[in-house]
Amino acid sequence: MNNKEDKGTMGKQKWILWDIDGTVVTATPGWAPERTMAWNDETLDAGPIEGAVCLVIAFSLMGYKNIFLTARDVTCKKNTVKKLKEIGVWPYVDALYHRPMRYSGIASHKYKHTMYTMLKKTFNITHAIDDEDKNLAMFADQGLCVINANVFTTNNEGGE
Ligand SMILES: [Mg+2]
């Protein structure tokens, strides 16, 4: 690529926006505001979603960078890092954002919309990968290429 092309969008680093729960690790049910700390501990029992883990690595090999944006609140960050290390994703995490306390109680898609609006000022985000319909619809409305993470957990073997 020559310098002239570099000045356009072609040369811009592209970023993938990843959800965590239900996307790269199995969902942890039973979150409620009054049991956040217990729920944080339960996230350590989540398992990897292999298709998504492979895709994280594939995007990295293709030169993309990965931002993880989770609705887990900041008190869970230590456990999130531990889990992402355990499932082999951590080397490919280029940025990680948890829900700040000031966004507690806000619906996931609204919180993510607010965060995306902020993040896109810094990062050239091209794709979003998430398992929640409202989040996917919101990201699609923002013009992102969206991947529904449920494809990684749906049985696609067919009838025969
Ligand atoms: Mg999710």
What features would you highlight for this structure?
alpha/beta; Rossmann fold; 6 helices; 34% helix; binds magnesium ion
Structure explained in plain terms:
The protein is an alpha/beta fold and about 160 residues long. It has one domain (about 15-25, about 35-150): HAD superfamily/HAD-like (Rossmann fold, 3-Layer(aba) Sandwich). It is built from six helices and five strands; from the N terminus they run αβααβαβαβαβ. It has helices at about 5, 35-40, 50-60, 75-85, 110-120, 135-140, and strands spanning about 15-20, 65-75, 95-100, 125-130, 145-150. It has a five-stranded parallel β-sheet, sandwiched between helices. α5 (about 110-120) runs parallel beside α6 (about 135-140). The longest helix has 12 residues, at about 50-60. The relative contact order is 0.19. The model has no long low-confidence stretch (mean pLDDT about 90). Bound molecules: magnesium ion. Magnesium ion binds next to loops. The site of magnesium ion (MG) has 7 residues, from loops.
Radius of gyration, in Å, reads: 16 Å
Strand order of the largest sheet: 3-2-1-4-5
Instruction: Estimate the helix proportion, in percent.
Output: 25-40%
Q: What sequence of helices (H) and strands (E) makes up the elements? A: HEHHEHEHEHE
Q: Determine the oligomeric state from the structure.
A: single chain
Number of strands: 5
Please tell me the total number of domains. Answer: 1
CATH class: Alpha Beta
Mean pLDDT: 92
Bound compounds, please?
Answer: magnesium ion
Q: Structural class of the secondary elements?
A: alpha/beta
- Low-pLDDT residue intervals, each spanning 5 or more residues: none
Determine the N-to-C terminus distance.
47 Å
CATH architecture: 3-Layer(aba) Sandwich
Instruction: Write down the overall geometry.
Output: globular
Q: The biggest beta sheet, please?
A: 5 strands, parallel
CATH superfamily: HAD superfamily/HAD-like
- What is the overall number of helices? 6
- Beta-strand share of residues: 15-25%
